[in-house]
DNA sequence: CTTCTAACA
DNA sequence: TGTTAGCA
């Protein structure tokens, strides 16, 4: 591992740079957190630190928002999406286990 | 930087 | 309802 850290959320941005990168306002990002759409890390002082994954999440929020969903609906969609991924992982593991036992 | 409040489309 | 502006 040299240049591409396979790890996901290493980098951390302040709210102002995160807002600019995603093209949203700072107050809007705080609102998203208030509505439970996203939960960025916090420094000891209480400042938000947005990871690269958070930026992707923010763009997904903007996309769903453009589709006509409200913040409450987006929260549910993100939750269902996370649950879906979890189920996929469990299914994948279960498949590998049964394959081994079958051989 | 944080939170809160108020106003607008 | 979501976004923005101003204050503490």
Automatic annotation (TrEMBL):
<dbReference type="InterPro" id="IPR047057">
    <property type="entry name" value="MerR_fam"/>
</dbReference>
<dbReference type="InterPro" id="IPR009061">
    <property type="entry name" value="DNA-bd_dom_put_sf"/>
</dbReference>
<dbReference type="Pfam" id="PF13411">
    <property type="entry name" value="MerR_1"/>
</dbReference>
<feature type="domain" description="HTH merR-type">
    <location>
        <begin position="12"/>
        <end position="80"/>
    </location>
</feature>
<dbReference type="InterPro" id="IPR000551">
    <property type="entry name" value="MerR-type_HTH_dom"/>
</dbReference>
<protein>
    <submittedName>
        <fullName>MerR family transcriptional regulator</fullName>
    </submittedName>
</protein>
<keyword id="KW-0238">DNA-binding</keyword>
């Amino acid at each position: 591992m040299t240049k591409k850290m396979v790890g996901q959320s290493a980098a951390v941005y302040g709210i102002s740079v995160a807002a600019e990168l995603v093209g949203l306002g700072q107050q809007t990002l705080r609102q998203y957190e208030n509505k439970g759409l996203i939960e960025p890390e916090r420094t000891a002082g209480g400042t938000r630190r947005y990871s690269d994954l958070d930026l992707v999440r923010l763009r997904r929020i903007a996309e769903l928002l453009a589709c006509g969903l409200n913040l409450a609906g987006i929260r549910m969609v993100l939750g269902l999406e996370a649950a879906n991924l979890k189920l996929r992982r469990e299914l994948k593991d279960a498949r590998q286990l049964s394959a081994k036992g079958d051989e």
